[in-house]
Amino acid sequence: MIPDDLLPHTVEVEHPGRTTDRYGNEVADWSASTRAAAAAWLQQNTGAEDTDQRDAQIGEWLMLCNSWAADGAPLTVHGADRVHWNGAVFEVIGPPGPAYEPAELHHYEIRLKTVEG
Q: What integer best gives the mean pLDDT of the chain?
């Protein structure tokens, strides 16, 4: 477990709802999403500009958080989720990386991506 004083940021992890498209496939429905608040540490790992036919700012971030939400419920994070923090919206890149201590899950290390423009 990461001590609370090392997790100064409050984020919201957003899980999409599910719906069936016109072909019978189950797809994400962001209009029916749910959110869970959690304490986290965020740091930007890379930043770049994509100027090929547009002016985009791209950033990759790392988020560290414990395995429970602010309300004490277990926190689940999936590769299809979004993270909201400080007015920014991030996409989760791949599955979260669980970090274990010998006896149990210690925390999650989650890669995030943001694209503006």
A: 91
